[in-house]
Input
Amino acid sequence: MTDPRNHTDLSEDLEPGTPLELVLLAERLQDSRPLPNPGFRGELGRRLERTSRRFDPARLRSLIAIYGVSGTALMIVGAVSAAGAGPLG
Output
């Protein structure tokens, strides 16, 4: 596992023209940032892996269909309301 503090090239992440004082402050803050102990990081990684949602293709298709139908229904309600009829007109 790589040490996140070894990423010292902050200039790639900053916008061009960033004042030098700000770059130095960012580097100082990054260098002084403490790392959690390895036991905590390992347990966190295992817990995230255990509880992460796996996107089942069938579940994903049903979510897409549900969002599509609800979006279409909202568009119809909006069009009816804009025409002067319906619940909002």
Q: What stands out?
A: DSSP finds three helices and no strands in the chain. The CA atoms of residues 81 and 89 lie 4 Å apart.
